[in-house]
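Hey, I was hoping to borrow your eyes for a little while. No rush at all, and the record is pasted right below:
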Amino acid sequence: MPASGHQAGGFLHAAGEMPRRRYLAAGLVLLVQGVCIFAPMAVLGGAIQWPESLDFPPSQMLPLLRDQVSAVRLGYGLYLGYSLLFLATGVVTVRLAARPGPLGSLALVAIGAAVASSLARAIGILRWLTGSLALADAYAHPGLSAEARAAIETTQAAINAWGGAIGEALGVALFAAIWAISASLLILRDRQLPPWAGVAGLLSGGLVAMPGLELLGIAPPVSIVLSTTGVQLWFMALGLLFLRRAARRPAAHVRIVP
């Protein structure tokens, strides 16, 4: 039968195209995840002295939020997008680290931790875009009594402590560390990625977990900025690895499958 008959009775299959696309997409996602943290840091750092301002007393923080409300909305809006992107980062990394086929229990633990981390981060960020801004407006009301001012300050302190525990201690530290360590163990076990990626991930996971010690009343040995920077560098290294694999994949060719 001539080739045209095979074409009529079969379908076109692009061999190698999907693996290349997966590596390309994963590489781009991880590079974006790695570098986009610097956008909210730049906006909030210049406007409200973030992250030092996380520890400012309400009497200092509330007027600052009101004076820089546009920058606060922009900066924390970018930070929210970055935090939600972590879910995609966590899933694509696990998928490429695991052997082809159904995901096992270790991979599912890693994905669950990525989901929990993204949700906790989002809740922590929303405290600045909702309750804190509303309190900042109330705090600036003319003729506010000393008792009302003290009540607003107490409320803001409580919101900040609660949101910080969820967002930073749980989301940025604990759940992200569980994901990083689980994904790294997966890399070392399934050997779909080079061993250095797993070792670097274990180190990053240990580093990013340290701010979570605050939940136990222990002062962390490193700041949350330093611990986050460590895992960002790991993201970028993985992103470059995936892009390199995408570039080295043989070009997809069309073959006819009867």
